[in-house]
Amino acid sequence: MTSQPWLPVLLRDGVEKELSLTEVFEQAHDIRRVPGDLPTQEFALIRLLLAVLYDALEGGPDTREAWEELWTAGPDGFPADRVAAYLARHQEHFDLLHPERPFFQVADLRTAKDEVFALDRIVADVPNNDRFLTMRAHGAQRLSFAEAARWVVHAHAWDVSGIKSGAVGDPRVKAGKVYPQGVGSAGMLGCVLAEGDTLRETLLLNLIPREEEDLLRHDEEDLPVWRRPQPLGAAPLPEAEAGPFGPRGLYTWQARRVRLHHDGEAAYGVVLAYGDPLPYRDMHGREPMTGWRRSEQQEKKLRTIPVYLPRTHDPARTAWRGLASLITGYPPEAARRGGRDAAPGITPRVLEWLGRMAEESDALGPDHMIRARLLGCSYGTQQSVVADVVDDSLSLSVVLLSPHDTALRDTAVRAVQLAETAVWLLGNLAAGLAEAAGTDQATPRAEARERGFGELDGPFRQWLAGLTPGVDIDERLENWRRTAHDRVRALGSELVASSSEAAWEGRVKPTAKGGTYWLNSASVEYGFHKELRKRVLAPEDDGPPDDGQDSSPDRPEELTP
Q: Domains in the chain, please, with CATH?
């Protein structure tokens, strides 16, 4: 596979093709992306490329200065020659059909009954017994070797949990089966990939120098799986031997044991079993491509503080709504409970590394734009099926990642709070109209909020991309206040105009002090406009709030995640 095309690429001119491993590195400056069959597959393939690059550079650049040389040298300075020589030395380790050490597989993997299963087990777009809206009406009966290789890589990273066939030699087998051991190596992560304009930039942006030991540990034992002294068997490696010891081993982690069956022309079957379990807890010094959160439950269970677990992505929540956690490591309300000293969370280390470079290096200036791409899987039914795939991104200036120059970052977080507040009030308006009509409130509230976030999605992304060094942050925030206020106010007017006759007629409701009041569309709309003005627009813009209460636009308590 070092010389045979199997990696799908999208070139800068829009052409799609397949390239070999060697060609991908040689043409990295002309490649826009490695799109894959699914977004999750792209992430797994990028991690594979990073493992190759780390190992070809003997652990990566030694220092920031060495990294800067790679970044500033342009295409001619990219170490494609070193990678090509490395791949030539290890060519047989990338052979998908090698008789003893097939790539990412176990050569003699078998069940006690010598069963061979359908390729659906590793092809994530063909769920077993559920082929609705798939291009494979009869399942994945045969795969080209190129496609099979991509799905093997994907299986190690994203495979579902559940009961699997037991492989001969695996001590975990009971009655021919192995009971759930967890999802693939990336399955419990809220993956974050820093993307540049080309594959060359993307690889370098995610390549952390060895001297940044507080962000990413590189132990001497760190090796990619293909350089392990002995081929893997069916049994999991002992924990002390497995690691992970650094990015090379982690990015090629063998969470599964796989063996393809083929007829020399294509793959027609597979054996898929559990491999090495990955300890997710407190891995923030090893895994730089996810955020981390403190787990009070694990702290109580283990009687130790702190305990960090990966912060996963919510498929129902757009990337910009989680901006605070992404660039600061914790949601904004956590700061009010104790600030950074309490360390409620840790930002993805790859973004923290770029924030440092934005502050301290001329190579990657503070006005440099990147895309923070968020990827992940949401699993259902005891993690035995993939319920949803997360793929979202944000274009932002690297200065927003700065750990010290926080003015722009804090402005971005404040803007998200204002958007959340405006949409929260829109949901309250929809619920109030339903209450006035005497109908269910939950569904209108949820639908209004979904519509509100959809209305603000494009404008916020555009606003964020313009939040760069040198702008007037007060003016930018004011612009966003008015954008959020005006757009949500317009949606509110539409809701009121379309409310039912029963809502316009209204109902008599009791007050907390024993009196009564009339609730109808007009009174609900009045309260919505007043609160939206008070909480989203600066108070001095429209005069003091009508009720004379505190006009602080702080996010309502109900919005706390």
A: 7-274 (no CATH), 292-402 (no CATH), 408-559 (1.10.132.100)
- Beta strands (DSSP E) in 69-131 are none
- Give CA–CA dist 456/538, Å, rounded: 19
- Apex 153 CA angle, 148 and 156, nearest 5: 125
Q: Name the DSSP letter for residue 174.
A: B
Give the pLDDT of residue 329: 76
Residues 256/272, Cβ–Cβ less than 8 Å: yes
Phi/psi at 542 (5° precision): -125, 20
Region of residue 169 (phi > 0: left; psi between -120 and 50: alpha; otherwise: beta): left
Beta bridge partners of 274: 256
Measure the CA–CA gap between 520 and 516, rounded to whole angstroms.
13
Per-residue DSSP letter, 189: S
Tokens describing residue 326: 């992404």
pLDDT digits (tens, 9 = 90+) for 417-434: 999 999 999 999 999 999
Burial class (CB in 10 A: 0-12, 13-18, 19+), 419: buried
Backbone phi, then psi, for 256, in 5-degree steps?
-135, 165
Residue among 156, 189, 222 nearest 349 (CA): 189
At 106-127, the pLDDT tens digits run 999 999 999 999 999 999 874 4
**What residues are paired with 143 via a beta bridge?**
267
Q: Buried b / exposed e across 288-320, counting CB within 10 Å, b at 16+? A: bbbbbbbbeebeeeeeeebbbbbbbbeeeebbb
Q: Bridge partners of 260?
A: 270
Query: Using an 8 Å Cβ cutoff, are 149 and 105 in contact?
Result: no
* DSSP state at residue 315: T
DSSP label at 57?
A: T
The Cα 292–Cα 284 span in angstroms is 7
Whether the predicted pLDDT of 197 surpasses 50: yes
d(CA 433, CA 435): 5
Element (H, E) at 328: helix 323-328
3-state secondary structure of 553: coil
Task: Compute how many other C-beta atoms are within 10 angstroms of the C-beta atom of residue 438.
Answer: 12
Angle at 167 between CA 164 and CA 170, to 5 degrees: 105
- d(C-alpha 89, C-alpha 331), whole Å: 47
Phi-psi group of 383: left, alpha or beta (phi > 0 → left; psi -120 to 50 → alpha; rest → beta): left
Q: Round to whole Å and give the CA distance between 45 and 203.
A: 11
Residue pair 191/290 in contact (Cβ under 8 Å)? The answer is yes
Question: Which three-class secondary structure state does DSSP give residue 13?
Answer: coil
Taking the C-alpha atoms of residue 29 and residue 198, their distance in angstroms, rounded to an integer, is 6
Q: pTM (2 decimals)? A: 0.89
Element (H, E) at 466: none
**Which residues are CB-neighbours of 418 under 8 A, at least 6 positions away?**
480, 481, 484, 536, 553
**Identity at 517, one-letter amino acid code:** Y
